[in-house]
Amino acid sequence: MSRTIAVNMEKLEKAIQKIKNEMRRCKEAGFVDGIPFWEQALSKLLKRKNKGHLSIKAL
Length: 59
Fold this sequence. Notes:
Blueprint: H1 2-29, H2 35-58
Helix pairs in contact: 1-2
C-alpha cells in the first residue's frame, strides 16, 4: 500500500515539474493568457500532493 502511494507521489512530482516548465515557457513566449490555466492545474496537483502526504503519515 505505502509503495503505491510513493510511486503516485513520484508521478505527481513529475507532473508538477512539467506544469512549472510549461508556465515558464508561456512567460518566455509572452503567452500570458495561458498562465492562469497552468496555475489552476498546479494548485490542484499541490492540493492532491498535500492530501497524499497526510495519508502517508496516517499509515
